[in-house]
């Protein structure tokens, strides 16, 4: 191999190294962006889980309150079932649809 061929081979190798280095830098930049996004999503997920826990803790209290309100409406002489909702119960007769709604678990 003469000097010119050796110099050309070394120059080609140098160019390939520069291209590879540019690719590595691009991958590094992309990886950094992904790590930052992952960290932000983990924080958001953690906050959402905390908020969900708070909401779930409040839910049984609200459900109990709603159920009591519906029972009061029924005791006042009105239907609470889907079929006759809001209609007055004649002589406060029992309605099996309302009972099913009020006493199911």
TrEMBL record:
- What Pfam family does this protein match (any one)? YabA
Care to name a GO molecular-function term for this sequence? zinc ion binding
Where does the record place it?
Answer: Cytoplasm, Nucleoid
Instruction: Tell me which stretches of the chain form a coiled coil.
Output: 24-58
Q: Name one GO cellular component term.
A: bacterial nucleoid
Entry binding sites for Zn(2+): 79, 81, 95, 98
- Could you give the cofactor binding note from the entry? Binds 1 zinc ion per subunit.
Q: Does the keyword Cytoplasm apply?
A: yes
Keyword list (alphabetical) reads: Coiled coil, Cytoplasm, DNA replication, DNA replication inhibitor, Metal-binding, Zinc
User: What is the annotated role of this protein in its UniProt record?
Assistant: Involved in control of chromosome replication initiation. Inhibits the cooperative binding of DnaA to the oriC region, thus negatively regulating initiation of chromosome replication. Inhibits the ability of DnaA-ATP to form a helix on DNA; does not disassemble preformed DnaA-DNA helices. Decreases the residence time of DnaA on the chromosome at its binding sites (oriC, replication forks and promoter-binding sites). Tethers DnaA to the replication machinery via the DNA polymerase beta sliding clamp subunit (dnaN).
The Swiss-Prot or TrEMBL record describes its family as follows:
Belongs to the YabA family.
> How is the subunit organization of this protein annotated in UniProt?
Homotetramer. Interacts with both DnaA and DnaN, acting as a bridge between these two proteins.
What is the name listed in the Swiss-Prot or TrEMBL entry for this protein?
A: Replication initiation control protein YabA
């Amino acid at each position: 191999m003469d000097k010119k061929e050796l110099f050309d081979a070394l120059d080609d190798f140098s160019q390939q190294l520069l291209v590879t280095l540019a690719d590595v830098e691009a991958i590094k930049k992309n990886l950094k962006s992904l790590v930052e996004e992952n960290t932000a999503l983990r924080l958001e997920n953690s906050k959402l889980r905390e908020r969900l826990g708070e909401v779930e803790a409040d839910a049984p209290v609200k459900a109990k309150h709603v159920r009591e309100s519906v029972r009061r409406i029924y005791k006042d002489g009105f239907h609470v079932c889907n079929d006759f909702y809001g209609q007055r119960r004649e002589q406060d007769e029992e309605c099996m649809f309302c009972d099913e709604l009020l006493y199911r678990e």
